User: Fold these one by one.
Assistant:
Number 1:
Amino acid sequence: MKTTKIGSACKAALAVAITGSLFAGTAQAQLAGHNVILVHGFQQEDLANPPANLQEVKSAGEDYWRTFWLSRAEARIDWGSDGRVEGGIAQQAYEQMRQISQQGLCNDYCIVVSHSTGDLVTRYLLENQARWLQSEGLQPLKILASLDYSGAGGGTELANLALSLAYNDSWYNWPLRAAVEAFTGIEPEPGKLGVVNDLQTNAARNLAVSPNSIPRLRFVAGGSSYGGITKPFIAGTDDGVVPTHSACGATSASGIDSCSSSISLAGKVTSQNGPSALYFNHYPVLMNEGVTHSGVLGSETGNISVPVVNNTTLGGLQVDFASRTYNKRAWWQWWGSGDRYIEVPGSDQTDMSSLVYTTLNN
């Protein structure tokens, strides 16, 4: 295990003081000297009230990121959750990518920040954007890396259940129905689930899976969303919406407990049911057992982050989170050194997005 580095520890301390006072369009609206593009996640409001036009989609996209990342980005790719990734979502995304290319925002490389289903949308865009833009004589976007929070690129079992419930709701019990409706925001009906169709585990894992050279840095949560009612229906550990197998970037949809075979989401150094393999160029960087699915975007503090892939360079980004290992005995342990843990010191004093931004912004 790696011990705490003074330089990285300073970064963790600095993250505590980060505020939301930066504004897009300034020289500060960058990460590590590169412009940032935001790709939001599933918005259940779009299923109940489909957006009338792209302006409504963009307005909702702007609100999505206000907690932290909005003021630190130069561009967004907003999309309506009532559409499908290979249909309306791709069309909306391309209009915005064309503008980004025309403005030259990625001439010196951009960094993508995605959340939840934005991970799947990003994967599809990264596979196709060069071909799309070149067909119009435009410069493809140069992407350095993607930071994926609670990534749903591997789908979620909640989407599987939502589609099953939409087509055959006769036998489903109340707890399952409540979990599905908490996730979708509606009573599922055929033809009204939009991107939820693409979030079925098999569908997601067959969409734009060709390897590419852009590293995907994964930030994984394990907290409870919707009062915990969804957790019994998701394989392995999860953040109340996305299973760990998806957020880590595992090649299989089998339920797992951690992104590591030797470290738990809480940082305990012990044998874990980890992924048998990860998708090419996917790197679980931080895990956090306490933060929720939406809390990773800057709204929650008090949770310990655990480094997994650390002290390395990924896509030109220096990944050097502070880390320390220590031993802790349970209240009932009167002998021995106790269990061994690893953590990012001070990470419970800040939120996950601030910690990541401060550490990688070098």
Number 2:
Amino acid sequence: MTRSVTDIIAALGTGVHVDGQWSDAASGATFEVVNPATGEVIATVADGGADDAAAAIGCAGRTQASWAAVPARERAEILRRAYELIVDRADELALLMTTEMGKPLAEAKGEVAYGAEFFRWFSEETCRVRGDARRSPDGKTRLMVTHEPVGPCILITPWNFPLAMATRKIGPAIAAGCTMVFKPANLTPLTSLYVVDVLREAGLPDGVLNVVCTTDPGGVVEPWIDSGIARKLSFTGSTPVGRMLLEQCARGVLRTSMELGGNAPFVVCEDADMDTAVGAAMAAKMRNMGEACTSANRILVHRSVLDEFGRRLTEKMSALTVGDGTREGTDVGPLVEEKAVTKVVELVDDAVERGAEVLCGGSRVEGPGYFYPPTVLSGVAADSDLMSTEIFGPVAALIPFDSDDEAVAMANDTEFGLVSYVMTENLDRAMTMSERLQAGMVGINTGIVSNPAAPFGGIKQSGLGREGGLTGIEEFVETKLVAIPVR
């Protein structure tokens, strides 16, 4: 039987977590976690500072050698047990996630399944870190290549996928034999902290994963970077913050993985199957209420099918039910905070002032909570702010085009390059456009590209490195060459 969310939170570790122990922040400070559907406080969490950061990174440094020496099979079994525990407690985790973040329960359960899969995937990859052995071309040297843990890692996750972003980083770090200091987002820390408790129950040794939640990220993360102990930073978040972290990491030449902002184009060609295109657009736009870096930000539609596509998408969007994500029948939950609603309001108002037509939605929902209705805008001008800004809300912006060349040029006219989507029934067009689009990922006739078995990441200012797939664990290992002369 699923516990109430009050009981779940009451049993949760909500302090600073260092060397296997939960404790208050050194300063005694706390911050509140709010339910975005009601605006009510649901928990208080230790608000860590510089002293807590020093304790966490110091512990990670002391534990690194012993953890790296643990056999790969043992690390794999820990991840496998953690996967099974998450699956067993999917209903509890989904309820907790919905309460602190807002997404509907059905979608939260989907994230639990997706996030758990990273632990299963990397449990299987743990024993498959490969090396190489061969002679040099001149035959005079034996070249042996091995891979070792990169060392203590700094992990920073965002608020929009509090379980999946944690498992996507923690999973490969454990698999590779790295210790960690972890800073979840202060808007949604509870789901991530639940994962920490799961890993402890699964047998993760004390000191391997150390956690500091904080409302002062700079006061915690920068000391970690400058500690001389950390050897890698993995960050998911905005591009401006990513740039700042890259500058800081350069001081100590830390390895970095950066999964940053997006401005995804969703291209609907004239030969697209309308059922497929509308369904994919709904998935790419409305996942997480649009609060996803992979969200379709600019929906580029061939002029010949713009009216039909706009009509059918508007019907789908208008039929969605907005409300508290814990209530049965809710399709669209609240945005994460008041500031997020304000941003969406400003972007929509700007587009309308520049000539966009509102096909549905278009103004915030009155009452408690941080709600904004599903909205479709047609005829969005090229100079509208939402053409260059991540909307991060349930707003579909339709822009017409007349040729493939024009669509590709419009799609690539951004500093970002995380993901692009193409709707077409022509295989040659699909392949050609996927090659021309400047993005780390391309979805053909689908609105979902994320998969634990596939590499996730972007190009340009959408980031560096990849998470998941066969390459995910490579981000957490160093390559070592041992050269032996042939005698």
